[in-house]
Specification:
Number of strands: 12
Shape: globular
CATH architecture of the largest domain: 2-Layer Sandwich
CATH topology of the largest domain: D-amino Acid Aminotransferase, Chain A, domain 1
CATH class of the largest domain: Alpha Beta
Number of domains: 3
Order of helices and strands: EHEHEHHHEEEEEEHEHEEHH
Structural class: alpha+beta
Strand order of the largest sheet: 10-9-8-11-12
Helix content: 25-40%
CATH superfamily of the largest domain: ATP-grasp fold, B domain
Length: about 300
């Protein structure tokens, strides 16, 4: 069935450039599938988006935004008010998943292991390390691992002068080992990918700079670990109330027995969405092409209120 689709892309977060690529890929795939597709680069002029929707009244908004204001429940709330069905998760799940400490609490309550950690204020660092090194410092509400830093033995940086996390940051024990990720499509865990990269953390540069990371699909890990990662990603998706697709990231310390070394890190409600991105790559591995994946999301679009 041909639909009028508005693809939201770009935006004003630090992930703008990635969103532009995701949005362009989705728009092209949906056009080729025969839909009437328009695109909108979200700005702080919210009225421009309202006017676009009122003028063309799309059947569906395909949300290709990443990061703040597009992935955290803000634009979802506007679309709810306007009664426009949209892809991916609703307001509550989007806001919860963007809040790393809240996500951590939710998945732990569902029985999923996460690294030891706590929220720390900037002034607390003046009193010394918040936990034994090595540890990792993350913004409490950013996507794409923006701003993540590993604090290792011998790191003598002055945190009072080199702080970019706002008033608070999430500090967690650093889990050595391997990076795993699992995509969820509706009620189905797709696959486990191992991501190999330079450096101690799979940060924004490693994710989006060519040559900085490679994907091993399926991940070469023991079957017990593979299955545990698939199960944990599904549990996290449900615990946060996600819909459509999501992607959960894990660290796997292969020095520990069985699945004891598997730790949940975070969940992305709107992961990168190009034919080469992790979730579409996993879908392709299972025989689901990029255009059918886009159309599947459009078919699941709805208002959540």
């Amino acid at each position: 069935m041909k639909r009028r689709i508005l693809v939201l892309m770009g935006g004003i977060s630090r992930e703008r450039e990635v969103s532009l690529v995701s949005g362009a890929a989705a728009a092209e795939a949906l056009r080729r599938a025969g839909h009437d597709v328009r695109t909108h680069d979200l700005s702080r002029d919210v009225g421009a988006l309202v006017r676009e929707i009122e003028a063309h009244r799309p059947d569906v908004v395909f949300n290709s935004l990443h990061g703040r204001y597009g992935e955290d429940g803000c634009v979802q709330g506007l679309l709810e008010l306007m009664g426009i069905p949209y892809t991916h998760s609703g307001v509550r799940a989007s806001a919860l998943a963007m809040d790393k400490p809240a996500t951590k609490r939710a998945v732990e309550q569902a029985g999923i292991r996460t690294p030891r950690g706590r929220v720390v204020r900037r002034d607390d660092f003046a009193l010394g390390d918040p936990m034994p090194r090595p540890f990792i410092v993350k913004p409490v509400a950013e996507g794409s691992t923006i701003g993540v830093r590993v604090v290792a033995e011998g790191d003598n940086r002055d945190w009072s002068e080199d702080w970019s996390f706002g008033d608070e940051a999430l500090v967690e024990e650093y889990i050595p080992g391997r990076e795993l990720t699992v995509g969820i499509m509706g009620e189905r865990a797709l696959a486990v990918t191992e991501i190999r990269f330079e450096g101690a953390a799979f940060d924004y540069t490693a994710k989006y700079t060519s040559g900085h990371a490679s994907h091993l699909l399926p991940a070469p890990v023991p079957a017990e670990v593979y299955d545990a990662a698939m199960d944990a990603a599904m549990v996290a998706h449900r615990a946060l109330g996600c819909e459509g697709i999501s992607r959960s990231d894990f660290r796997y310390d292969d020095r520990r027995p069985g699945a004891d070394g598997l730790f949940f890190l975070e969940l992305n409600t709107q992961p990168g969405f190009t034919p080469l991105s992790l979730v579409p790559e996993q879908a392709s591995h299972l025989g689901i092409g990029f255009a059918p994946l886009c159309e599947w999301l459009v078919g699941r679009a709805r208002c959540h209120a």
